[in-house]
Inverse folding.
């Protein structure tokens, strides 16, 4: 027994812990309920009467030794940062603040668009990203062989019947009109998917905001005034707009809207390719076929719709030159938007 005690004494004297965890393991191994020293105390009852005094003294000595060692090691960790191993000399020093995140420019641009239209009485509507052919194409008056239905554009999940990733947020228009009777005034943000090669100007995933207004006597002039208000709120009060004739299967007539280039004030620069104008959205009067597909009487009701790319609007607003920056999550890019309050 004396031998065992001496071996334990050596262990205790030589023990040095690198971490608090090691120290705790040591405590359990020596002094724990099933620890080595506890076992020796349990054995004490078997010690012969004449050795009891001597062994008892040794055991008590070693117990004190172990307790003191634990206390000393613990004190060391209290004064040192266990992980860094450095001495904490001043506990009143302020802690280094964790950096706080900032909103992604896409979210900021999207929120700003939604805010502007909610001020005009539009409510926000949502729809699924995985859609069927009806909501993305057929109800929107796409002819059966329209190129947008093609594999080159659309990501199909299943064929016949076709299940696909929506290629535009116009599908939400259809969902809203199927459920809600006019008057309808909605703004629909969402992610869209197109099978395109990724470049500075295109991506296979991007964001759109769709707008829809259906009521009696809604005119092209209402659309123009709404979009002018939007452009001035988004790009500044002196912004001019122009509508160019265009084509979309779901609107008739259709137009594309340009805003005057706010970088050169319309004089012509690199950003507007020296035209003085920047294209920002597609719009038009909802085609009567679309209204009828969604169960709305096209003799009684008319309406306008518009759709815009959020990445593109944010690019114009903050002069971002490469679309890929939005998706790389490089903090050096994202940090630049911390002070932009929207
Ligand atoms: N869906 C069109 C696109 O993805 C954008 C668009 C154009 C939406 C005209 C509309 C609209 O509602 O009227 O390019």
């Amino acid at each position: 027994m004396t031998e065992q005690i001496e071996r334990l004494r050596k262990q205790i004297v030589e023990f040095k812990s690198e971490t608090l965890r090691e120290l705790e393991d040591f405590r359990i191994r020596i002094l724990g309920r099933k620890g080595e020293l506890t076992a020796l105390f349990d054995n004490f009852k078997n010690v012969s009467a004449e050795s009891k005094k001597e062994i008892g003294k040794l055991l008590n000595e070693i117990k004190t030794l172990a307790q003191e060692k634990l206390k000393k090691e613990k004190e060391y960790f209290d004064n040192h940062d266990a992980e860094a191993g450095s001495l904490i000399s001043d506990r009143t020093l302020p802690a280094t603040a964790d950096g706080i995140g900032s909103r992604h420019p896409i979210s900021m641009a999207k929120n700003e668009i939604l805010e502007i239209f909610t001020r005009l009485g539009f409510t926000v509507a949502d729809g699924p990203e995985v859609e069927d052919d009806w909501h993305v194409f057929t109800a929107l008056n796409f002819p059966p062989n329209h190129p947008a239905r093609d594999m080159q554009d659309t990501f199909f999940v299943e064929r016949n019947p076709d299940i696909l990733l929506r290629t535009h947020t116009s599908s939400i228009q259809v969902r809203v009109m199927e459920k809600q009777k006019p008057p309808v005034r909605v703004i629909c943000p969402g992610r869209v998917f197109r099978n395109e090669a990724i470049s500075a100007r295109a991506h296979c995933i991007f964001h759109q905001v769709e707008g829809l207004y259906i009521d009696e006597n809604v005119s092209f002039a209402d659309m123009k005034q709404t979009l002018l208000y939007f452009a001035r709120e988004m790009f500044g009060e002196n912004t001019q707009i122009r509508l160019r004739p265009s084509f979309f299967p779901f609107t008739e007539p259709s137009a594309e809207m340009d805003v005057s280039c706010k970088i050169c004030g319309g004089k012509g620069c690199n950003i507007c390719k020296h035209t003085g104008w920047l294209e920002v959205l597609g719009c038009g009067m909802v085609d009567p076929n679309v209204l009828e597909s969604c169960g709305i009487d096209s003799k009684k009701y008319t309406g306008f719709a518009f759709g815009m790319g959020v990445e593109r609007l944010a690019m114009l607003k903050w002069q971002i030159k490469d679309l890929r920056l939005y998706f790389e999550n490089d903090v050096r890019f994202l940090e630049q938007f911390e002070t932009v309050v929207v």
Summary: The pocket of 3,4-dihydroxyphenylalanine is lined by residues 168, 170, 210, 248, 251, 282-284, 305-307 (CB under 6 Å). The chain has two domains: 2-88, 105-337. Strands lie at 123-124, 130-132, 156-158, 163-165, 184-193, 205-215, 241-248, 251-260, 277-286, 302-309. The two ends are 78 Å apart (CA to CA).
